[in-house]
Amino acid sequence: MVRTTISSLFGASPVRPLQTHMSRVQSCVELLVPFFEAVLDGDWARATDTQQQIARLEGEADELKRNLRLHLPKSLFMPVSRRDLLEVLTMQDKIANRAKDIAGLITGRHMEFPEPIGGLMLNFVKRSVDASKQAQTAINELDELVETGFRGNEVAIVESMIKRLDEIESDTDRLQVEIRAELFKRESAMPPVNVMFLYKVIDGIGDLADRAQRVGSRLELMLAR
Fold this sequence. Notes:
Elements: H1 6-10, H2 16-30, H3 32-41, H4 44-71, H5 82-109, H6 117-139, H7 142-147, H8 153-186, H9 192-224
């Protein structure tokens, strides 16, 4: 159960609830890997169970988001604005939302991924999860940034993390192009509706990585101020 007092939300750090939220988001996103493995194995009982876990964690992230929005002080005595914190929170939340959407769509339609698309999709998912993980790593440095007043070596460390996040997101772009090309080769022999939803899932996974990158971009803007 999420407690709602200001002290329980913030503890010693006003950015701690933001980090807690991102941790819950990442727990949600990471389940996409075993979910896809179950789907590719045709194990719909396991896939459905994992999809339900993803939905539950996304709901918990939503609850944390609501509590943070309700109890974040109007003015924070720190070198980061309330608006910046709330914008990062929104971006984080959209990552979990996208993970839930992807799993829900695939489960609802019992979608199949023909080879070699299935193997490529699993690699694509893993790399998108890597992007979200890297965003979490950067967010976890926010305490240190606050303590140093967004100055010194800590800024260089976070900038390096954001650069790595950009590189991972570029990897997902490359994988997305590769998968779309493979699907294009085969789509004439497939039911059009199936093709349409396959493209939708591909775009959703790419969007997950894009949303993770946006968390890094927002941090980068905060560093530049």
